[in-house]
Structure formats: C-alpha cells, structure tokens
Design a protein that fits this description.
80% of the residues lie in helices and 0% in strands. With 193 residues, it is mainly α. The relative contact order is 0.11.
Length: 193
C-alpha cells in the first residue's frame, strides 16, 4: 500500500512508482473505494506517460493503458458514463495496435458493463465474446471469470436469458477460484480510502 508507494517513489526507478500504485489502486477498487482507486489510476497514467512499455516488464501489460481501461470501468460504476465511454474508446485502438491482448480483453469486458448501465445496447455482445476468446487464449482463470461475467451481462442486456445463464454457469469453477483465492487476497491488502 502506502509504504510500497513511498519506497517506490524514493527508489528513483521510474517503473516502480506506477507499478506500486497499480497494485494499490486495484486493491482500493476491490475494497469499493472507487474514488480513491480512480485518483490513483490517474496518477499511474501520468507517471507512465513517458514510457508506453511501462509495466510490461513487471506485469506483462502496459500500465498506462491498464489505468485508462480500469479508469473507464470505475467511471462506469461511479455513473460517469460519458467519461467511461471516452476512456474505453481511447484504449481500444491502441491496445489493438500494440497487441495488448490482456488489456483489450479487460477493455472489451468493460464495454459490456457500460452498455448495461447506459441502456444503449450496441456492440457489447460482440466485445464480450471477443473478451472471452482472448481470456481463453491467455489461459487466465481470473480474466476468464471476469469476461464470462461480462458475457452474461451483455446477454442479459439483450434479453437473451438462456445465454446469460449459460455464460454465468460457465463461470462456476473459475469463479470459485477467483472468489476464494484472489479476491480475499486483494481485499485483505487494500488500504483505507
């Protein structure tokens, strides 16, 4: 949390400052401190703006794109749907151009949520299917659980209840792992707001 950020900032190693904030901002997000998470995600964007590869060595993806995509998700949850749409739209072409598959996966998943919250049913279904395909190709149980949930949301937004239930049921094995292992870990290390 804050100790990691302080140490990273003091190190003088440019990649450490946004990297320490990434784990802390995600912990804040999981703990429901959305405003604090969004603020830290914006810091990550500023700190990593000088280096489009920042984060790739540590996490396997670019932190600047991650912070924009996650920022879009958080803005959706906070109800600022226009700002969320702008964030997500900005990430998509860059993630495709740089072959940032995991970022594209999460970004596509966020579109399904935005579509559901806004009521504007557009291409969330197509994006959700692409997100699931990417998660499967990456072999990431965490991303697969998230994207299957996004697919269920996209199907529900269209009134495709059988497909929504089928997507939700596919999450059972991976959802158990995520909910029993990952989320308690993230939540237990989340700092206060």
């Amino acid at each position: 949390g804050t100790d990691a950020i302080r140490l990273a900032d003091a190190s003088g190693v440019q990649e450490l400052a946004p990297s320490a904030r990434m784990t802390t901002s995600y912990s804040l997000f999981i703990a429901g401190h959305l405003d604090a998470a969004l603020s830290m995600m914006r810091e990550i964007g500023s700190l990593s703006a000088h280096d489009s590869e920042c984060g790739r060595r540590t996490f396997g993806f670019a932190l600047g794109l991650w912070s924009s995509s996650m920022g879009g998700w958080v803005l959706s949850l906070l109800g600022d749907l226009d700002a969320a749409r702008k964030c997500l739209a900005g990430v998509d072409p860059i993630a495709r151009e740089r072959d940032e598959r995991e970022i594209l996966c999460w970004n596509n998943n966020s579109w399904a949520l935005l579509e559901r919250l806004s009521g504007a049913v557009v291409d969330g279904d197509t994006r959700a299917h692409e997100a699931v395909a990417i998660a499967e190709s990456l072999g990431s149980p965490f991303s697969l659980a998230q994207t299957l949930n996004g697919l269920a949301i996209a199907q529900a937004a269209r009134g495709n209840w059988d497909d929504a239930i089928a997507a939700s049921e596919r999450t059972s094995p991976v959802r158990w792992m995520v909910s029993m292992i990952w989320l308690p870990l993230w939540g237990s290390i989340a700092p206060g707001p």
